[in-house]
Design goal:
Elements (H helix, E strand, L loop, with lengths): L3 E6 L6 H13 L8 E6 L5 H8 L5 E5 L16 H6 L4 E4 L2 H6 L4 H13 L3 E6 L3 H5 L3 H13 L4 H4 L3 E4 L13 H19 L1 H4 L4 E4 L7 H5 L6 E4 L6 H9 L4
Parallel strand pairs: 1-2, 1-8, 2-3, 3-4, 4-5, 5-6, 6-7, 7-8
Helix pairs in contact: 1-2, 1-12, 5-7
The site of 1,3-dihydroxyacetonephosphate (13P) has 14 residues, from strand 8.
Function: Involved in the gluconeogenesis. Catalyzes stereospecifically the conversion of dihydroxyacetone phosphate (DHAP) to D-glyceraldehyde-3-phosphate (G3P).
Family: Belongs to the triosephosphate isomerase family.
EC number: 5.3.1.1
C-alpha cells in the first residue's frame, strides 16, 4: 500500500513550551503505526531540533520544515536553506503552501527551484497545490491544479518524482471549516494521479502519496481518508489540539 500520512502543519502557532507539550501529549498516546503509516510534524523553524529529538525514538514519526529558500546559500538574511535543514537531519519540508504562494508571492517556477534543492539535500518535499474559490466556481480546478504540477514538478525525473509527497489543499477549504466533500476530494486526487500517470506512467503514479488538506477534523478524517486516492491529510487547526490530532492519526487507512 502507498504510504498513508497524517501531517501536522502548525503554521505560525504555539510557543516552544506549548509545542513541546503538544508533542508529549500526542506521542504519549503511544499509537503504534503500521509500516505504511507515517506521522509528520511540520513545525516552526526554531522548534525543529526539539521536535526531531522528541520523535527520534518513535517508529514512523518525523519532523518537517514548513518552507526553505530557493537559493543554495549566501547573503539572504533571515532565510533557511535546504542544506541547513539536511545538516540537522530534517527529512521533510512543506513546499508551496497556498499561504506562501499568496503572502510571499511564491510562483510555480520558484517552487520548482525549492523542490530541486530539497531533493539534492535528501529532503522529501511535501508539495502543496490547490485552487482558489473563484477557480472552483468556474469549474476549472482540474486545469489550474494540473498547471501547478506541470510548472513545478514535471521537470523531475521518474526516480525523483517518486520521492515527493503531494498535498491537495483547495484554498477555499483552508481554515474555513468548509471541507471538500469526500467526492470532490476523491475526484481531484484521482485526477491528479491520472495527470502523474500520463507524465510518468501508472506504476510510478500509483506510488505517490497524495494528501488532502483543508479543514480536516477529528470527526471527518475517517471519511475523507477512506477514499481510494486520498492517502491521509495535511492538517492545520486540528493538529494543534492533541486529542483531535490523535483521532486524525487513528483515521489513517489500516
Ligand atoms: O493549510 C492547511 C494545512 O496545511 C489546512 O489548514 P486547516 O486544517 O486549518 O484548514
Amino acid at each position: 500500500m502507498r504510504k498513508q500520512i497524517a501531517a501536522a502543519n502548525w503554521k505560525m502557532n504555539l510557543t516552544f513550551q506549548q509545542g513541546e507539550k503538544l508533542l508529549d501529549d500526542i506521542l504519549g498516546a503511544n499509537i503504534d503505526l503500521a509500516d505504511h503509516q507515517l506521522v509528520i510534524f511540520a513545525v516552526p523553524s526554531p522548534y525543529l531540533l526539539m521536535t526531531r529529538s522528541e520523535v527520534e525514538e518513535e517508529k514512523n514519526y518525523y519532523t518537517s520544515a514548513q518552507n526553505c529558500y530557493n537559493k543554495k546559500s549566501g547573503a539572504y538574511t533571515g532565510e533557511i536553506s535546504a542544506e541547513m535543514l539536511h545538516s540537522i537531519n530534517v527529512p521533510y519540508c512543506v513546499i508551496g503552501h497556498s499561504e506562501r504562494r499568496e503572502y510571499f508571492n511564491e510562483s510555480n517556477a520558484v517552487l520548482a527551484e525549492k523542490l530541486n534543492l530539497c531533493l539534492e539535500n535528501y529532503i522529501t518535499p511535501i508539495f502543496c497545490c490547490g485552487e482558489p474559490l473563484s477557480i472552483r466556481e468556474a469549474n476549472t480546478q482540474n486545469e489550474f491544479v494540473a498547471q501547478q504540477l506541470k510548472e513545478s514538478l514535471f521537470h523531475l525525473s521518474p526516480e525523483k518524482i517518486k520521492d515527493i509527497v503531494i498535498a491537495y489543499e483547495p484554498i477555499w477549504a483552508i481554515g474555513t471549516g468548509k471541507t471538500a466533500t469526500t467526492e470532490q476530494a476523491q475526484e481531484m486526487h484521482a485526477y491528479l494521479r491520472s495527470v502523474l500517470a500520463a507524465q510518468y506512467g501508472q506504476s510510478i503514479s500509483d506510488q505517490i502519496s497524495i494528501l488532502y488538506g483543508g479543514s480536516v477534523k477529528a470527526n471527518n478524517a475517517k471519511e475523507i481518508f477512506g477514499s481510494p486516492d486520498v492517502d491521509g491529510g495535511l492538517v492545520g487547526g486540528a493538529s494543534l489540539v492533541a486529542a483531535d490530532f490523535i483521532e486524525i492519526i487513528k483515521a489513517l487507512k489500516a
